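hey all, quick one before standup. I had two proteins in the batch that finished overnight and I want to keep them in one place so we stop losing track of which output belongs to which input. First protein below, input sequence then C-alpha cells straight from the run.
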Amino acid sequence: MGEGAWLVGFLVLQRGIELALAARNTARIRAAGAVEFGAGHYPLLVALHAAWLLTLAWAGHDRPVDGGWLTAFIVLQAGRVWVIASLGPRWTTRVLVLRGAKPVARGPYRWLKHPNYGVVALEIAVVPLALGLPWVALAFTVANAAVLAWRIRVENQALAWAVDGGAPPGAILSATLAK
C-alpha cells in the first residue's frame, strides 16, 4: 500500500468518526427543537466531499506524500479539532439552529465567523497537492468555493434568524422544522 493510500485511509476514517459525532449532535439538537436551514444544498455538499475522497483514492493511492504539504495538512487538523471542540455539542454537518441561541464566540470563532469552512477549503487543496495532484486541487477548490458561497449565505441567514427570530428569511433557505 502506497503512502497516498494511508493518507486517504486516514481521511476516510476521520470523516467517518466526524459523521458519527455529527449524527449524535444533530439528533440532540433536533430533539431540542432546532430548525434546519438550507437542507436542499446538503446532498450536494455530501456528493462533493465523497467525490473528492473517491478521486483521491483513485488518483492518489499509489503516490508518495510530499512532506511540506503533509505538514500543512497536520496543522489544518489541529485547526479542525479546535473548531469542533469550540462548537462542542452544536457542531454538526447540517445548518441547524435553535431560536434565541447566540452564535459561538469562543476558540477561533472569536476572530472568524466561519473558521471551519476555511479549514475545509484549505484541506481540499492541500491533500491533493500533498499527493502531487494539482488538477484535483484546482477542480475541487473551485467546486467547493461554489458550494461554500451558497452554504455561508444560508448559515449567515440562519444565524440571524436564531438571534432575531421571526419568520425564516429568504427563499434561499428552504428551512424545515426539525423533527
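OK second protein, same deal, sequence then C-alpha cells:
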Amino acid sequence: MNPAVLKRFIIYLAIATFAMFSVWTIREVWVDRPPGDYYVEEGGLRLQDKLYDQALEAFDNALREQPDHRGALMGRAIAFMQSDRPAEAEAEFTYLIKYLEANVQDDDRTGIGALAAAYGNRGILHDRMGRHEKALADYKRALRIDFSSVEGPGVVDRILYSVQPATIEKRAHYIQDQLKLPPEQRVLKNAEIDAKQRMHKP
C-alpha cells in the first residue's frame, strides 16, 4: 500500500473518530440530560461560591423546566438556609420531604438518598434554630432511611483534605445525651463545632 495513502487514511480516521466523540459528548451533556439538570448543576456551583441569589435563580430555572425537580428543591432549601432565611428553608425542606415520601419507589436509591438528605438538612436547620428535639427526630429519621447518604465524607476526602465535619450520627448521639441531663447542665451549642456541619445533597 502506498504510504501516503495510508497516512491520509489514518488522518481521516482520526478526524472522524474525534468528530464522532465530540457529537456523542455534546449529546450526552446537552441533549440527553434530564430537564433541569443543567440548571441544578449551575446552582450547585453558585452555592459553593456563596452566591445565593444566583443559586436560587438557577434552581428556579430548573423547576421551570422540570417541576418538583428534587435536586432543585434541595438546592433552594440549602440556599435559603445558608442565606439566613430559616422559615423559607424549612418550608422548602418540608415540601421536598412530603413530595419524596409520596413519590419515591423502593428501588430508587437516589430518591431514597435525597429523602435522607432532606431530613438531615432540616435537622441541621432545627439544630441551628435551637429546636433540638425536632433536630434529633429528623437526624434519626435520616439515619434510618439511608445511613450512607448522611454519614459524611469518605475516607479519601478525610485523608486528602482533612475534612472532619460533625456528622449527623455524632450530632444525634450528642443531642440525645445532652437532653438526658437537667436543662441547666446541657450544652447544646458550640459555634466552632456547629460551623463544621455540612449540608447534604443527593
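Flagging for whoever picks this up: The chain has one domain: 33-194. Residues 119 and 189 are 20 Å apart (CA to CA).
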